[in-house]
């Protein structure tokens, strides 16, 4: 734990600029998580030369629209203060729905590419089955109950993507109870089909679980590949990503 803290602290002291000094990536974590859940992918992105803003937001405290406006609005303002030429997004789970909600209602002239990890783009059957339970509502908050699969659920009212978006879904579950509620391959929260989004640029399924897909080495490699090229590498796994030589990269706090 102490060693991990030292790595993160060191990573915040300098900035690698091998990709583009005027490009920034905003990270958005999932429901009931914090920005710390995105630390590994944040460090990998910074090591690959991206400027990173790892945003923390209170995912259980408000509806999706307010969460999106508060978290993304501030992050974009911070990027604009840096004169960012392009703003990319990397999201986990609910974070992807926040991006869709924000972009549906606001213009981002310098919006670049978006990578969504395990997003409930068509909702989750888990919410359909358990959403009325008091315990479920208490754990997941208002936003969690907006993620059903019916046509009136918020994800299904946001429409298709009109921007470059790559989606990585998982097909491995460590929650067999949830998986019994979800038809077809799934990651324990979202089916591989429900992760899809009309208008998406590329789509990939990895043998990863919902809680940990953002820490999966191949998911991280594919995320970097999409941000750089606009598509995933469908040629198969490659060796793990390594930061370039030199000082440790900096991850910018949100």
3D architecture notes:
The protein is globular. Helix 3 crosses helix 4. The protein has helices spanning about 1-10, 40-45, 65-80, 95-105, 125-130, 135-145, 155, 175-180, 215-230; strands at about 25-30, 50-55, 85-90, 110-115, 165-170, 200-205, 250-254. The protein has a single domain (about 1-254), classed as Alpha/Beta hydrolase fold, catalytic domain (Rossmann fold, 3-Layer(aba) Sandwich). Strands 6-5-4-3-1-2-7 form a seven-stranded parallel beta sheet, sandwiched between helices. The two termini are about 20 Å apart. Helix 8 (about 175-180) links the parallel strand 5 (about 165-170) and strand 6 (about 200-205). With about 250 residues, the protein is an alpha/beta fold. Residues about 5-20 and about 240-250 have low confidence and may be disordered.
